[in-house]
Amino acid sequence: MKKTTKAIISFVLSMLIAFSSMSVIGVFAADECDCGHTPMVMVSGFGATTLIKVNDDGTEEVAFPFDANCVTGAVTRNIGKFNKEAPLDFVKALLVDLIDPIRMNPDGTSYYNLRPVYETVEDTCLAGFKKNDALKYVPYTGSDFLDMERIGKKIGDDHVFNFMYDWRLSGDMLADLFDEYIEDVLEYTGHDRVDIYCLSQGSVPVAQYLYKYSEKAQVEDLVFDNPIVEGSNFVSDLLAPKDEVIKLDFESILDLLEGILHIETDISEIIAVLGMIPSDFDIHGVIDYAAKDLIYPIAKDSPAYIEMIIPEEYDRVVADYFSNPGNEKLLAEADKVRKGYMADVKGTFEKAAENGIEVSIISHTGIDLVTATKTLSDGIVDLSTSCGAYCSPDGTPFPSDYIQKVDNGKNCISPDRTVDLSCGYIPERTWIIDGLWHGMIEWAPNSLGLLETLFYTDTLKDAWSSAKYPQFMQSNDSNSDLYMYFTSTNSLYEVVNGKGQLVIENVSKENTMLVENVEIRGVNGKTDIPVPVNLAPGEKFTVTVNTKATGFGEIFITYIESDNYIKTKTKTEAFSVTDNYSGQLADVKVETVAENGIFALVMKIILIIINLFRNSLFGQAV
Predict the structure, then answer these.
(1) Which domains does the chain have, with CATH numbers?
(2) How far is residue 16's CA from residue 254's CA, in Å, rounded to a whole number?
């Protein structure tokens, strides 16, 4: 049974990875037309649209993602293969049966007759989903802040749409279908332009649409949320060389799961305490087997997969996986995208701007990929391929004498000196958020506010025009625990004559944070923090930071969460002291929490006593 358990866990993890880019949200924008609103079209990520299988007898069934009926049917069809002496054979047969409906032919076409669960604008606007009692098919995360129903209350259920598509197909083919869909939306609503929000793999057909149809000038505002415009190492790693084992970052996967479920519980720590994953558990080998021997033979011949391979790995992956007889048409179809917008992403976006389309990019950084490659990302998509930035190869700060690659008159180097955005696709309209997981833009108030501002208003002339939404931001979602920024820029830039006000805020919705110490490292800096400080959820305090040099520094904080007194946690954020900050400066008034110092000191004493007791009993201290 041990092998059976391994296979099941590996399958669940594989599905987690596949679904990690599914979440999608939507936003709306004001327009000068009669109704006062521009229609909004949302384009979701890979695997988000439910696909229906149309059988030869005309009956229909869900193909993917499989539901309870799919599982029941697969078990019924394969129960005869169960053998208690070899239970893994049954698990393998079950997995193959469940994945089989999305089988692809070697030429990149679908083996079965599949279609999106809904396709017409009448059915895929919010009014249609409600009419058909089909909200369960809407690929959005159910955010407390923003979802399709919330949008409908503001712009009308008949003005918000979700483009549902077969995500296995070529981005070029989907771009043509998307063009037809926009035409239908305009006819349906009586407008002459739409706004577009797209996430992850949904950026591929949208970018190809811009390449082919920008001249039609039927789009007003378009925001790419961490797009896979030039692929991702995540996809290339899952298509690892056949003589190498697929490797995953298990802790990053668990962190991603926390983000998807939007919980503040440390899942990896619980698993470690409970010992749920044995030390000898060969997770990489199991996943490698499940992927290469069971899943890939059925589903790999998809143009979408090839389009998401990073350029540096393309030739290798094609040689390993797509050089079989019949793959010629598959490669030719995928090449339409590679020779389309991918051949000149910057030029494609510039052409869109010439036709009145305001394109913006929101990218995420500061998180390791869930696969083996170490690169700045949001767990799924590389920062460099989402916005064209140059990133430090090893994640360490650029040398002190580093000069940005393009002299555009702006400082495009991130506060932690790991990102150079000057060479990006559209640096003037690109915002980068540190510490935000893939598909989670609605969970952080500042990233959500940025997204809404881009659509609601025309106040953001470029990425340097707002102190509230600077080009480089830190995520303040509740899983971040502590959120830090300087009041002058609302970003981790300390820029005013070597002295600044640093805000430290508890962004958790559940836990109190006991801040034990705040240390400034580098730039000869110091603070005036009255430690320890106890912060209830939502509370914040300011620290005066004095520095005697320009350059690169770090804020190093030690703290304890109220839900886990066993573990002292640390948080490090990088900042820069510079005299040539390109963005707007502001003096944001922040309430200082001063009265918590004594209370926190008492709490610290109590914790010390608890530690002494715990250490004497268990040999374990905070």
Answers:
(1) 1-48+119-389+424-473 (no CATH), 481-622 (2.60.40.10)
(2) 10
